[in-house]
Amino acid sequence: MKLPGGVGMLCNQCSMSLSGGCTVRGVCGKDPDLNSLQEALLYGIKGTAAYYYHALEVGYDNPEIGHFLAEALYSTLTNVNFDKNRFLGLILENGRIHLEAMKLLDRAYVETFGRPEPVKVPTGTEEGHGILVTGHSYKALYELLKQIEEMGLEDDIKVYTHAEMFPAHAYPKLRKFKSLYGNWGGSWLYQRKEFAEFPGVILGTSNCVQQPTKAYADRIFTVGIAGLEGVPHIRDYDFEPLIKRALETPRMEKIEGGQLLTGFHHTNVLAMKDKLIELIQEGKIRHIFVVGGCDTPHKGMGYYERLTELIPDDAIILSAACGKFRYNARDYGTIDGIPRFLDFGQCNNVYSIIEIALALASELGTDVNSLPVSIVLSWMEQKAIGILYTLLYLGVKGIYIGPKPPEFLTPNVFEILRKQFDLRLTGDPEKDLKDMLSKGIRVEDGAISVEEMD
User: Fold this and answer.
1) Do β-strands 259-262 and 119-122 pair in parallel, antiparallel, or remain unpaired?
2) For residue 46, is pLDDT > 60?
3) pLDDT grade, residue 301 (50/70/90)?
4) Phi and psi at residue 375, to the nearest 5°
5) How many of the other CB atoms lie within 10 Å of CB of 445?
6) How many Cβ atoms are within 10 Å of 274's Cβ, its own excluded?
């Protein structure tokens, strides 16, 4: 968790910084722990900004979110705030605001595209020219599907989702379009191989896009927030150039494939709340595992594949985000008709999982930390960090994170989070599973502050 060569920090944000940046202590007076807290806040609000942006895309706003983003950014400027305790408070406040952003985006998508419904999505192909949509923007997908329909090309062009666009099939107003067919590939991690194999046009709608290889550089476009060097960018959702290019690509053949289940949401899961509680009380559901987050090339991602394989048959798994493509194709079976693997969709749909946990705790007359629930997160980038802050804001303890520690947290800062929230790093899946099934939360007594860094 240290920078190379024993460097404790790297800050070059103002003209006072030393040549190559301040690495031991800032000329302004900040130390590595304060620098770490500032970076931790910056990465959290980057994640919040992503969800806020997608809500704004479909016309939904909450000014409180924008106000906090301004305050948090301002606090990280040179010579503004040297109080570490206040930064810890801002990070937890970031968690609260991030929850509001996820809540806003959930409402925006439900009211715009309909309430998600469980659906089995084909992974094969249908006859016709193909368009593959990756990223996170349902707004971009909707506009594309609508224009294909308006041009009378629904029988000629089939649209496939990729990575975090996969859950789009669960929304009724998206699924109604005849041209939306199935899902192609897995997470963003393998896109260069999967895009090269896809014979049609590719559309990048948000983060999780990479510079294209020569194999598909002439048939990829971006829209919205996404941008790639040398790649045509769609303005004002006018997809005519993309659709025209798609008609120039080879037609795909009909090939049968498997199916993947998605579309779980707090509304359709809480509709069977009484049955869930009954199964928990009868011991038929011994434990609930929340296993989700980003996919990443780190070798430690094998942990999540192994953990989900080891989870016993009397436990259910709630998942969201693209890391699930490593383990969502297995047949986990059911418990009294309830699927053991429930996919809630994109990373922002962790909001639904939070709503379910809070509702179950309320019905059982306890708090979330007393539920038979274990949370295991994988992180790649800043949106996952924002979700972590939300869980910490809610007081959730005993969270496992991996596949590696955040490099922007100094050992001192991580120790503060460990003591206050029992934040853990993923280790051996067999040992961790044993601890999770026994709950295994050991929180040290007493409020924690940054004074312990001194």
Assistant:
1) antiparallel
2) yes
3) very high
4) -115, 125
5) 5
6) 10
Q: Return the structure tokens found at 370.
A: 């007393």
Q: What count of Cα atoms within 13 Å lies in the side-chain half-sphere of residue 139?
A: 19
Could you report the per-residue pLDDT of 230-243, keeping only the tens digit for each?
A: 999 999 999 999 99
Query: pLDDT by residue (tens digit) across 197-210?
Result: 999 999 999 999 99
- The structure tokens 């051996």 sit at 428
CB atoms within 10 A of CB 310: 12
What's the Rg (C-alpha) of the chain?
Answer: 23
Compute CA distances 164 → 30, 43, 45, 223, 293, whole Å.
Answer: 39, 20, 20, 16, 11
Global pTM exceeds 0.90: yes
